[in-house]
Amino acid sequence: MEHLAVEMPAIAYYPPLPLYAGISAILCAGFLFLAFRKLRRDKKWGKATLSITLAAVFAVATAGLVVGSYQQYVAMNTWRYDFRLEVQPNETVRESLIVPIPADSSLLVALHLVSGTANWSFVETIHGRGLYVQFTGSAGLDAFFSEFAPGGVLHNTTLTMMNSTAQPGPLTIWIFYSGGGGVTVHFASGGMAMPQSESIAPGWRTYQLLSPPVA
Question: Taking the C-alpha atoms of 179, 180, 184 and 187 in order, what is their torsion angle to the nearest 10 degrees?
């Protein structure tokens, strides 16, 4: 069976912002040193004003760069996973859909309704565990999971309900649709998505997920 696994990035920390913060802090200290030396020598604030002003400017810059460095560090060391489902039926009657979920279903604890009306639950099917969604009219579900500096066992993002006979290439999954009016579906999980919104046929059918195009 094909596997889809989102690898957690190795802890990384690139130096540009911290380097600039260090340079700015050194300049700030230098101008403060010059200001105090002038004060001790001439006993006049006027001659030290420029150095004090420059020291203050670099102190503010240092603080901003330190905050930016921390934000950069957090962003670069945070692992993220997203899951999205959007349905646009042709009729406003109750219909249902079953789509794959990540093997580690805890990644969907934040699953919530972002538009329309829908109910959902996890179900066991002939093709594995899936997300069963009942909807009336257009609806959208979304889940986002993030974890800072993950360690230990990686989250299993392999999708359930994959076609075990699929050949190498695009990921092939099973989707079930119960309804007669037809529904257009956009499904995405962990960076993989249907190449475009597709009209789902009734019953069990296989559909392809693709990686996003390389920029």
Answer: 20
Ranges of beta strands (E only) in 60-127 are: 78-89, 94-100, 112-125
Pull the structure tokens for residue 15. Answer: 């130096």
Amino acid present at 141 = L
As a residue count, the chain comes to 215
CATH of domain 79-209: 2.60.60
Alpha-carbon dihedral sign for residues 159, 211, 179, 120: positive
Q: Are strands 183-189 and 192-193 parallel, antiparallel or unpaired?
A: antiparallel
**Both structure tokens of 52:** 């004090």
E strands, the chain, are 78-89, 94-100, 112-125, 128-148, 171-178, 183-189, 192-193, 198-200, 203-209
For 26, 53, 160, the CA distances from 58, given in Å and listed in that order, are 9, 9, 54
φ, ψ at 177 (rounded to 5°):
-130, 130
Q: Give the 3-state secondary structure of residue 100.
A: strand
User: Considering the entire predicted model, what is its pTM?
Assistant: 0.66
* Residues 6+ away with beta carbon under 8 Å from 114: 140, 141, 142
pLDDT tens figures, 70-109? 667 666 777 888 999 999 998 888 999 999 999 998 899 9
